[in-house]
Amino acid sequence: MHTEIIQKVIDKLGYTSYLEIGLDRGINWCGITCKKKVGVDPVIMIPKLEYGDFFCWGNETIYRKTSDDFFASCGHPVADIVFIDGMHTFEQSAKDFHAASRRIAEGGLVLMHDTNPTSEIESMIYDTYMTEHPEYQGAWVGDVWKTIYALSQSGNVNYFTLDIPYGLTFLWLDKSKEIKPVYEDVAKLPYSFFNKNRKDILNLKPVTYLGEFLLARTTC
């Protein structure tokens, strides 16, 4: 579902450049059409792209590198829309957001996947998840929700989360203000805190809200 939503955003807002962090098997990547596409992942599992560090054909470019290395070497801006679906941890998703937000085009958006875990098992750190629950066959969503909570306390990040499987959060900045989230305290928050305050933390919206949001963005 998130692929169709991203494509709708690109089409409705007339975006011409797309950056995806975390390609995995390329299911979402291959479903997106945009004038310019850039993908980044240190472990590329797309068929026929298992070897090599750089791939470019037509309007599409893929880098086999970490998002940290990519952002350290790229110019400004990198894209109209950035989709973050990389390592599902608080620490890395926060780093990816801040790097992307400093390089997003004017009027652009950052979209972050896996912000709405439905159980404590889904939200665990990967090592814990694999060690304590090797029998579990469900999704690993991680604790990306902590990044959203931290940003919600910063005072300059506008956001909402569409209520689709695992969540899709839309974020955009008030660039007149400085980001000052407190990460140290947020890292210690338990899943029970999130579960109790889910709707408020994520600013959860039904999928139908997307049309209202896009209309407002095109008329402002």
The name of the CATH architecture is 3-Layer(aba) Sandwich
The proportion of residues forming helix, as a percent range, comes to 25-40%
Query: N- to C-terminal separation?
Result: 27 Å
Query: Which shape, going by the Cα principal axes?
Result: globular
Structural class: alpha/beta
* Strand segment tally: 9
Q: What do we call the CATH homologous superfamily?
A: Vaccinia Virus protein VP39
Mean pLDDT over the residues: 88
Number of discrete helical segments: 10
How many domain modules? 1
Largest sheet: 9 strands, mixed
Low-confidence stretches: none
CATH fold assignment: Rossmann fold
Strand content: 15-25%
**CATH level-1 class:** Alpha Beta
Series of H and E elements = HEHEEEHEHEHHHEEHHEH
Q: What is Rg?
A: 17 Å
- Largest sheet: spatial strand order: 3-4-2-1-5-6-8-7-9
Task: Write up this protein.
- The protein is an alpha/beta fold and 220 residues long.
- The protein has a single domain (2-219), classed as Rossmann fold (3-Layer(aba) Sandwich).
- Helix content is 37%, strand content 22%.
- Strands 3-4-2-1-5-6-8-7-9 form a nine-stranded mixed β-sheet, with helices on both faces.
